[in-house]
Amino acid sequence: MKYRIALVDDHALFRTGLRGLLEHAGHQVVAEAASGEEFLALVQDLEADVVFMDFSMPGLDGAQTTERALEHRPELRIITLSMFGEESYYSRMVKAGACGFLLKDSAIDEVLEAIEEVNNEGSYFSPSLLQTLTRHMHLECDSEEETLSEREKEILVAVCRGLSNQEIADELFISKRTVDKHRANILEKTGCKNTAALVVYAIRHGLVEV
Description:
Layout: E1 4-8, H1 12-24, E2 28-33, H2 36-42, E3 50-54, H3 62-72, E4 77-82, H4 90-96, E5 100-103, H5 108-119, E6 124-125, H6 127-136, H7 150-160, H8 165-172, H9 176-190, H10 195-204
Parallel strand pairs: 1-2, 1-3, 3-4, 4-5, 5-6
């Protein structure tokens, strides 16, 4: 499937290279920005399915830009781009609302997989980052004050497998409306804001393995 992509990175050479790879794969790069401020100036009228967001930029960083962008356009699917070694910043990106995480030296196949995953209402973590990130992330949703029910844990594991609410309903022989309600309860109990945060929560609490 062809997707519309926006690139936010202060390095023009990196944007040019990524743009070429994405367009060669059949996607359309509809916008580029060299800073968080520049991206926010165009976000209101942006027609994009996915935004690739650099974390380390002068001025507003990736987390600040993501949070402000999603206040205006909560439907945007934002994938964080970073160099290995910056994992301490990823908890901020999860809290800000990012739904994907890629290293800048990722292969194009992994980039394309991430685009597909986040557009199917899921999240994507670069495999080479996932174990390190979940070890070091400190999220507000780490609280265990409220225990998830067995059904909620079952649904959370299915969410981590990348299943949509309808697919979970079909697999568990329950209605999508019931899954929607359970998922809302899981988000409320854990304090997580999105699927990416739920994945981290599930791994940290031993519900799924990496």
